[in-house]
Write a structure and sequence with these properties.
Layout: H1 5-16, H2 23-48, E1 51-53, H3 66-72, E2 77-79, H4 83-106, H5 111-125
Antiparallel strand pairs: 1-2
Helix pairs in contact: 1-4, 2-4
Protein name: DUF1573 domain-containing protein
Length: about 130
């Protein structure tokens, strides 16, 4: 493993994960953490109101090029996260990353290598990766 923050994080998770070491526990905690990320984002809109979500169908003009499409598409979010909501979402995302790394460790996968392969795939396929 190279000396990166990803590798350091993966090593740290390996050292501290004791209670939920079973892959079944890790998978259920990973799914729960995803729900908590989603919930904290939703609460930013519904309870705090610092962001507003206006989800609606996006109509794409026939004359638009693929390069223009990137700037044309809307993420449906307006406003900015307040400090409290930002901190909560970052905390929940951090927990989610913890369980993702725990899965990697249990399956003997190197997250740094996964990132490298994914970057290479995106660089190689470009717009044809269509994420």
């Amino acid at each position: 493993m190279c000396d990166s923050i990803i590798n350091k994080f993966q090593d740290s998770v390996s050292e501290v994960l004791i209670r939920h070491k079973s892959i079944l526990d890790i998978i259920s905690k990973y799914q729960e953490s995803c729900s908590k990320v989603n919930r904290s984002i939703i609460k930013s809109a519904t309870s705090c109101g610092c962001i507003h979500v206006d989800g609606k169908k996006q109509t794409i003009p026939e004359t638009i090029s693929y390069k223009e499409l990137h700037d044309f598409m809307n993420n449906h979010v307006s406003g900015d996260l307040c400090d409290i909501c930002k901190d909560k979402i970052e905390k929940e995302m951090g927990n989610h990353l913890f369980y993702l790394v725990a899965l990697c460790n249990t399956l003997d996968l190197d997250l740094h290598e996964i990132f490298k392969k994914q970057c290479k795939s995106i660089d190689t396929l470009g717009k044809y990766s269509l994420y």
